[in-house]
Amino acid sequence: MKCPYCGHLENKVVDSRLNKENTIIRRRRSCESCSQRFTTYERLEVMMPMLIKKDGRREAYDRYKVVEGLKKACEKRPVSMKDIDEFVDFLERELQDMGEREVPTRWIGEKMMEGLAKLDEVAYVRFASVYRQFKDINEFMDELKGLLDTKKEDSDG
Q1: Are residues 65 and 31 in the same domain?
Q2: DSSP label at 78?
Q3: Closest residue by Cα to residue 116 from 104, 105, 128
Q4: How many domains does the chain have?
Q5: What is the span of the domain harbouring residue 57?
Q6: Are 31 and 8 in contact (CB under 8 A)?
Q7: Is residue 22 located within the same domain as residue 57?
Q8: Strands of 11-18's sheet, edge to edge?
Q9: Residue 2 domain flag
Q10: Is 4 a domain residue?
Q11: Alpha helices, H only, the chain
Q12: Is the pLDDT of residue 144 over 80?
């Protein structure tokens, strides 16, 4: 593993820990050249389906894009990176469990909206306004009414 500070290739593992789900190994490392410490993460690489964009193009699934979209929606909101990472882990397990070779990006967008609705309603509305590309305030209000109706049903039932 190359040191991010000096580029030296020799380092030693100081500490290793598994996450709660036993799916990721966190390793604290110390560079043998500059003595700086850094953290690496190991996760099982699994084949994710190709994504089909609205215009028909195909692209590889990119966890970074999903996380960044969620981070933007949750900016200045009380949603932790831990919550975002756990949701993306859940989303990826669902994608893998589907067993499909190709999945429309629309499916991912809808799942992200479902997750945000549970994590933070303001983040949900932010994401929905970009994802749904509202053309006017009425479409925006319809989305808000749908969210409020869902919330009311959840509290009644």
Answers
A1: no
A2: S
A3: 128
A4: 2
A5: 50-156
A6: yes
A7: no
A8: 11-18, 24-31, 37-43
A9: no
A10: no
A11: 63-73, 81-98, 105-119, 121-131, 137-156
A12: no
